[in-house]
Amino acid sequence: MPLLDMPPGAIGFAFIASGFIASVFFAAGAMVSCDMLLLMLPGVIVLPPMALLLMELVLCASAAPELSSKAQTAAEKMRDFMGKSPDYMAGQAPARAVCPAMGNTGQCSLGINSMPGRNPAPGAACAGDETRGSVMAEKKPKRRVIHPWPLRLTHWLNALAIVMMIGSGWQIYDASPLFAFTFPPLITIGQWLGAAIAWHLAFMWLLAVNGLVYFIWSAASGHFAKFFPLSPRAVWRDFTAALSFKLPHETGVYNAVQKLLYLGVLFAGVVIVISGLAIWKPVQLWFFTDLCGGYVIARYVHFFAMTAIAGFFVVHLLLVAMVPKVLPPMITGGRIEP
Amino acid sequence: MKNVNRRSMLFRAMALGAVSTLPGCDYEDPAHPDIADKFLHAMSAWNDRVQEALFDPHTLAPTFRADQITNPPRFNAFYDISQVPVVDPATYQLELGGQIQDKSPWTLAALNALAQTSQITRLTCVEGWRVIGEWEGVPLGDFLRRIGADTTCRYVSFKCADGYYSSIDMPSALHPQTILALKFLGAPLTPPFGAPVRLRIPTKLGFKNPKSIMQLAVTNIYPGGYWEDQGYNWFSGS
After folding, report:
1. Would the keyword Transmembrane helix turn up in this protein's UniProt record (chain A) (predicted)?
2. How does pLDDT run across A90-128, given as a tens digit for each residue?
3. Domain residue limits at A135
4. Are residues A42 and A178 in the same domain?
5. Number of separate domains in chain A
6. Buried b (16+ CB within 10 A) or exposed e, A254-288
7. Domain boundaries, chain B
8. Contact call for A44 and B128, based on CB within 8 A
9. CA-based, 20 to 30 A from A255: which of A116, A163, A320, B196?
10. Which residues in chain A are closer than 8 Å to B4, comparing Cβ atoms?
């Protein structure tokens, strides 16, 4: 049985168990010394994914024969489907002879059938497909990765960078608050301003370089195509559907709200880097400071960009908690099973 | 199902809590750096090099109009304003040291006799706030050349009447807006704001502007600084 089809309880159990073990190590490290504490960090980050990966390997290996037969029948079904409705294919995806997403998984047809009111957009599903190639030519269809490894790597490095940057940023904010509140020291990183700045200016490199790698990879691999097309109508339709819990999660395809959220947080990421540079180097990088409306306003821009990212962070975690099956693929890559 | 969600949320909250306590031990004891301190030191040194490369001797700090000046100015030090040391301007002498040909000390009158320059610039504190003020004094580059300082040296260091000390890189010392300030708003400096002589360097953060300077030295040996030795980034350019 592949991991994706596992009951959520088992996934949750694996996570909690590995997380608990990691936390015990972490607490033990904290009691010994600060050095140990830092050494424990990789353990905390690596342990849960390792446990999941192991589970998936074991489960997939034991379920392999069943899988391939399943895949074959699905491919046969697809062939029948394509053969029976040539008009549909010609009308909907004229530029592509075979939509890999359709051929592989039947996602497109599923989406259309289950949502009568929705515009069928197989082109959108195809555009984001990472592994191009005709399924029809192969006997056994290749299983498709939901999240390619560069995406997963940059995702988790970014998660670490964001936690460190926001935590230390809150401590820096507290030294000269913009508003009538400060962040409690319990949730900030660095016990005093000097340490907080040191963490902030150390992890800014991870944030910026990792972000740059993501942008270059996304542009080169065609990942950005997954965000388009995007219309206000589609956003409104999916947003209202999501609010009434009628929006299904289509594996490997972003819905309109997701597209908007991801594009929004990417924009906030660009803004936070530019406003950060504007604050860090208002003399040498004066053009960034001017772009932000001066040094004083740049601090507000930086703060609100942080608010946007922190807000995204919360919504992102809530959505993952609501649909927990999306979490393992971000670690193992996941497979769109036939 | 609901239970699992709640538990996984709990785990996530725990993980976040664990991460947020992680850097709690940094820079607590500069004499005994732990692995976190070493990591931060290495990154800070890297940031020094980046800022040295980024520094353009011809890029000027922005200047402001007289009506933008922050008045009254904001006092800031590592002690309360009641503890400010008072230096007698009549007996004051600026001592010189290090790679300088003519190390004879300078009186306030002699410094005042040199060609002066004035600027309305922004002082940006490492804490985030900023003030705008008008300072007048001797360009440090002119002064260094006059006393025969070896301007190929890496550092210019300062020691102050209140025990504060700091140092800057030579290219920043030679920047046209870097001055040994003697006056603020047209009047001699007052003790809380660095009387009788302070460094005014608008291309660096506020704590790189030492007040009540008693000694100036030119050296190739890294002199550090009061805050720098506790963990603030040394270059701290703007």
Report:
1. yes
2. 333 333 333 333 333 333 333 333 333 334 343 333 333
3. 71-142
4. no
5. 3
6. bbbbbbbbeeebbebbebbbbbbbbbbbbbbbbeb
7. 47-230
8. no
9. A163
10. 8-9, 12-13, 324
